């Protein structure tokens, strides 16, 4: 019988966070865009705070 062994290996998302930081620094996206990424779960709040220098706070203007 065929036996499968799956091992989860987490992805390294640091290149994605670095790209978001570059786009923010270039002015292609703003704090609101990054806050939406946090609300949608694609960017950790700690990365938002590192990139913008501001504390992340949930607001009504962000989408989920």
From TrEMBL:
Top-level taxonomy: Bacteria, Bacillati, Bacillota, Bacilli, Lactobacillales
Highest taxon above the source species: Bacteria
Protein name per Swiss-Prot or TrEMBL: XkdX family protein
Cross-referenced Pfam families: Phage_XkdX
């Amino acid at each position: 019988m065929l036996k499968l062994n799956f091992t989860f290996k987490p992805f390294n998302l640091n290149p994605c966070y670095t790209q978001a930081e570059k786009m923010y620094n270039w002015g292609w996206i703003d704090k609101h865009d990054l806050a939406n990424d946090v609300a949608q779960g694609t960017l950790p709040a700690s990365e938002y705070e590192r990139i913008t220098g501001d504390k992340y706070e949930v607001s009504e203007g962000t989408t989920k």
